[in-house]
Specification:
Number of strands: 7
Structural class: alpha/beta
Number of helices: 8
Radius of gyration: 17 Å
CATH architecture: 3-Layer(aba) Sandwich
Strand order of the largest sheet: 3-2-1-4-5-6-7
CATH superfamily: NAD(P)-binding Rossmann-like Domain
Helix content: 40-55%
CATH topology: Rossmann fold
CATH class: Alpha Beta
Strand content: 5-15%
Number of domains: 1
Largest sheet: 7 strands, parallel
């Protein structure tokens, strides 16, 4: 069965995707910073599917943790899909750029930009061997000028351009910038503290859009979940 590595998998979209792949028998390596939430996910993944599950708690910004993820992949000898889903929002509520703490911004970039590239570099041998797929989860904040979104949005813009260039450099892979849109997640709630976000879709409703990318394998590029869901099956 195919193998996937999903970062930031204990909550939100990462969790929904991991459970969906597990139900199809995928072997999974998943991570998250929250130990308790990751342990709960591991139990759910074992119940959902028949594939192997390796759940490793840690921060993707930590090089030692990334090495641990790669070591876990070494046990299976293959990697078909890398999903760089882990990210941080930054301060909540989000400050305007004139007062954005620069040390905090550096931390946002370490998680949202440097860590995905570092993990990609480490896993490229497996992905090349499988002619696999890289999915870097992005946001409309990467391409729109929303007030207060300068830190997070610029980090996602940087991730998008890295992904764009990587697609040219790795023509045998599928390299996607995937914009899931607004979702009812903890991070989205943090972005809008005190607001009611119950009208946003649940992450599970967005997973079919990414699964369509994995099924159809269109050319590398930027894809919005809304467009994929609106297209004919």
């Amino acid at each position: 069965m195919p193998t996937a590595l999903i970062t930031g998998a204990s909550k939100g979209f990462g969790r929904a995707l991991a459970l969906d792949l597990a139900a199809d028998g995928w072997d999974l390596v998943v991570d998250a910073r929250g130990v308790a939430a990751l342990a709960e996910l591991e139990v759910a993944l074992h119940a959902a599917g028949t594939g192997t599950v390796r759940a490793i708690a840690g921060d993707v910004a930590d090089p030692a943790h990334r090495d641990g993820l790669v070591a876990a992949l070494g046990a299976s000898g293959r990697l078909d899909l890398l999903v760089n889903n882990a990210s941080v929002l930054g301060p909540s509520p989000q400050p305007t750029l004139d007062r954005y703490p620069l040390d905090v911004l550096e931390g946002v970039y370490r998680v949202n930009v440097v860590a995905p590239l570092a993990l990609t570099q480490l896993t490229l041998p497996w992905l090349r061997a499988a002619r696999g797929t890289i999915v870097n989860v992005t946001s409309d904040a990467a391409v729109e000028g929303y007030e207060g979104w300068g830190g997070y949005g610029s980090s996602k813009a940087a991730l998008e351009q890295l992904t764009n260039v990587l697609a040219r450099e790795e023509p045998d892979l599928r390299v996607y910038r995937f914009d899931p849109g607004d979702m009812r997640t903890e991070m989205h709630q943090d972005a809008f503290p005190g607001e009611d976000i119950s009208d946003r879709p649940e992450p599970e409703t967005v997973v079919p859009a990414l699964r369509r990318l994995l099924r159809d394998r269109p050319p590398s590029g930027r894809y919005r979940a809304a467009d994929l869901l609106a297209a004919r099956p």
